[in-house]
Specification:
Length: 382
C-alpha cells in the first residue's frame, strides 16, 4: 500500500510505526506538520493536504490520534482514513466528523473505545499499543549516567483546578475537594466523569456569570480534566516525595516550578530525555521504574509501561485494569493500589534483586510475544 502519514505532535510511536510499515512492504510518505492546527477548520492545513494528495497517489491516510480536519479532506476525496489513538482520554471536545464512512478509528484504551461505541459509532475499534523491542534493546546503556534505585520519566501535570475553584462558591469548592480526596485513594475505578455532572458544570458557569458577564464558561469536560490532572499531580508529587526521602530517585521531566522544587528537595531532577536515544537507557539502568498512570486514562496500558518492559526494565505501576488483564501482577510487572502499597513494594523489590530481575525478564518476554508492531499493523490495515 501507498500510505500518507501526518505527524502533528512529534508522536512517540510515529518512528516505529513507519519503520514496521516499510519493513512489511508498504510505501510511506510521512509529513511532519508541526504548525499549530485547528483540529476542525484550518485553511492552511487543508491546502497543504490537498497539495500532498495531488502530488501522490495514496491508498489511505494514517495518523496517530484522530484529526477531524484530516477526516474532512479524506471524506471529500473518498479516501480511507485510519487513526490510532496513543493518548487517553482523547483531546476532542465532541465526536464531530468521527462518524464519516471513510474513518476507521482505533483506541488503545478499551474504556475510550467503549465510550465512543456507546455513542453509536460502528467504525471504532480497540487496539493496545505496541513496542519495538529490537530498537529499545539496541540502545547502548550508560549505567554510570542513568543508573538509579528508582526513576520516573514523565510529567507532573499542572492543573487549573485551584484557579478554577478560587472563583467558585463554598459548596462547589467543598464538592470538588471531596471528589479529589476520593479519586486520589481509588485505584481501578474512575468517578470524576460521573460525579462532575452537567448540572454541576452549569452551576459553576452560573456562578462565574454572577461575578462577571465576560467570565469563562467551563464545560463539564474541562472541569473533569482539571480534576483528573490535579489528582494525578498530587499522587505523583506525594509518591516522589515519600520515596526520595529514603532512596535515590531520579526524575526526568521538563522544568519544575519553584514550588515543586521546594516540595521535592531530595529528588534528583535530571531534565527531560530523548524518547529514542536516552529514555531506553533510563528504563534499562534503573532498578525500579515508576508508572503512576494519569487518572483520566481509565483503563489503557500507557506507552511508558510497555516501553519499560520492552527495555527489560522493572515496572512498578499504579493498578490499571488492562495492565492487570494482559500481565500477571507480581510475575511480569508489579502494581500498587495505594501510595502506602507503592512504597512497601518499592522497598521490597529494592531488597530482592533476584526476584526483581526475574519479573523484569518475564515482562520482557510477554512484550515480545503479545505487543508486536507487526501484529498491530495487520489489525490496523485489515
Amino acid at each position: 500500500m501507498n500510505i500518507l502519514l501526518y505527524d502533528f505532535l512529534n508522536s512517540y510511536i510515529q518512528h516505529d510505526l513507519i519503520y514496521f510499515l516499510q519493513k512489511m512492504g508498504h510505501k510511506c510518505n510521512n509529513v511532519n506538520y508541526h504548525k499549530e492546527v485547528d483540529k476542525y477548520n484550518d485553511d492552511a492545513f487543508f491546502e497543504r493536504m490537498e497539495k500532498d494528495l495531488k502530488e501522490g497517489s495514496y491508498d489511505l491516510v494514517l495518523t496517530t490520534n484522530f484529526w477531524p480536519i484530516v477526516a474532512k479532506v479524506c471524506k471529500k476525496h473518498d479516501l480511507k482514513y485510519i487513526s490510532w489513538f496513543f493518548d487517553s482520554p482523547p483531546n476532542l471536545p465532541t465526536a464531530e466528523c468521527m462518524d464519516y464512512s471513510c474513518n476507521t478509528i482505533f483506541f488503545f484504551a478499551r474504556a475510550d473505545y467503549e465510550t465512543y461505541k456507546k455513542m453509536g459509532l460502528d467504525n471504532v475499534h480497540y487496539l493496545p499499543l505496541a513496542v519495538n523491542t529490537k530498537r529499545l534493546r539496541s540502545v547502548k546503556t550508560d549505567y554510570a549516567k542513568y543508573g538509579a534505585e528508582i526513576s520516573f520519566v514523565g510529567k507532573l501535570y499542572e492543573s487549573m483546578l485551584p484557579a478554577f475553584m478560587s472563583h467558585m462558591t463554598e459548596y462547589q469548592r467543598g464538592y470538588l475537594d471531596g471528589v479529589v480526596k476520593v479519586q486520589l485513594q481509588l485505584y481501578g475505578g474512575y468517578i470524576v466523569d460521573d460525579v462532575v455532572t452537567e448540572e454541576f458544570a452549569q452551576s459553576v458557569r452560573d456562578r462565574y456569570l454572577s461575578l462577571s458577564e465576560t467570565a469563562v464558561q467551563l464545560t463539564k469536560k474541562e472541569i473533569s480534566w482539571a480534576v483528573a490532572s490535579y489528582v494525578t499531580h498530587l499522587e505523583r508529587m506525594t509518591l516522589l516525595s515519600i520515596l526520595s526521602k529514603k532512596h535515590q530517585l531520579k526524575l526526568y521531566t521538563f522544568e519544575l516550578t519553584e514550588d515543586e522544587k521546594r516540595m521535592l528537595p531530595e529528588v534528583d531532577f535530571c531534565g527531560s530525555v530523548n524518547y529514542l536515544t536516552e529514555m531506553p537507557q533510563v528504563f534499562a539502568a534503573s532498578k525500579i521504574n515508576l508508572c503512576p498512570v494519569l487518572k483520566a486514562n481509565r483503563s489503557g496500558i500507557p506507552l511508558r509501561a510497555l516501553d519499560v518492559m520492552g527495555c527489560g526494565g522493572f515496572l512498578l505501576s499504579s493498578y490499571q485494569s488492562e495492565l492487570y488483564e494482559y500481565f500477571i501482577d507480581g510475575e511480569e510487572c508489579v502494581m500498587y493500589t495505594s501510595l502506602e502499597d507503592a512504597v512497601e513494594k518499592a522497598e521490597f523489590y529494592l531488597r530482592n534483586e533476584d526476584i526483581r530481575a526475574r519479573i523484569a525478564c518475564a515482562g520482557y518476554e510477554k512484550i515480545l510475544a503479545d505487543f508486536r508492531y507487526e501484529d498491530r499493523i495487520d489489525e490496523l490495515l485489515s
